[in-house]
Amino acid sequence: MKTEILKPTKENINIAAGSIRKGELVGMPTETVYGLAANALNPDSVKNIYSVKGRPSNNPLIVHIADFNELDKICYINDDAIKLAKAFWPGPLTILQYKKDIIPDAVTGSLNTVAIRMPSNKIARDLISMSGLPIAAPSANKSGRPSPTLPEHVYKDFNGLIPYIIDGGQCEIGLESTVINVASKPYTVLRPGKISIEEIRQILPDVMLSNNILHEPSPDTVPESPGMMYKHYAPNAKLILVSGDRFNVAKKINELYNKSLIENSRTKILCFDENAYLYPDKSFIKIGSSKHHEELAHKLFALLRSLDEMGVETVYSEVADLGGIGLAIMNRMIRAAAFNIIDVDKIK
After folding, report:
1. Residue 190 CB: number of other CB atoms within 10 A?
2. Which residues make Cβ contacts (< 8 Å) with residue 109, sequence separation at least 6?
3. pTM for this structure?
4. Can you tell me the distance from the alpha carbon of 230 to that of 222, in angstroms, rounded to the nearest whole number?
5. Which helix (H) or strand (E) covers residue 334, if one does?
């Protein structure tokens, strides 16, 4: 199969929509990351997503819609979910509700809930509308790898495996959507994203955060939503996060870096712009200002992919604070590091 990157013309989007109706997979841009789109009502198409990604079949997918009228067809929508949808859709919020029988178990990992989102990206919504179907679309990357924010990322992972990738340029946000379970109480954010817990609590004040967002899940944890697996978003390089007071962090990272050089490791440091001076004569990559987390979110996955292109073996990284989208950044980074984090303020 030859994979083509299509310009997002109406004609090309219609070609890709026809491909989805035939049961094939398509690389689809959204405002968050690129998705691997398939007919959400076709179990064989959905199973093909898991196959080409190498994704565990118990890891649920998100169903994307383009119209509020589609909700009643695929789930039992409650009033609180409607409040969230009216506040944040179209946009980067995924809402879990109890599914209807039209949604195959393959989409939900055999759970009785389905994750639903209405993207704000016009190309994505046009593709959904032209296909005439709800679209299941996890991130368009090999399972466990950094998510794709450029069409070239999708091409690298799936060239020869899918017929089309629609070129929507670089994704606006760069991190996957916030996921919230509103099917039963207590309502819980399962995966953080651009829409923060603070914003959600303005609509539903009693919403909780899942303990699995920043803590290692137990081996028997059943993922309720995408992004809850132990290791995810990971480069080939070994990533170690270092948190705490910025000066103590720099001292520890410099120490670890020097040790890595003795061991002949290809090592990089990821640091905030204002901290670069703390790493004299070191090989570092500036990741933006610690005061502008949106910038880091926008380029995080592309940055992790670039480490592999450079042949880096070990990476020591500063971390964002947990306010706003900072929680989502930390959630992605701690999984990319397989929960390998050093808190220097706790070292005696």
Report:
1. 21
2. 57, 58, 59, 60, 222, 223
3. 0.94
4. 11
5. helix 326-336
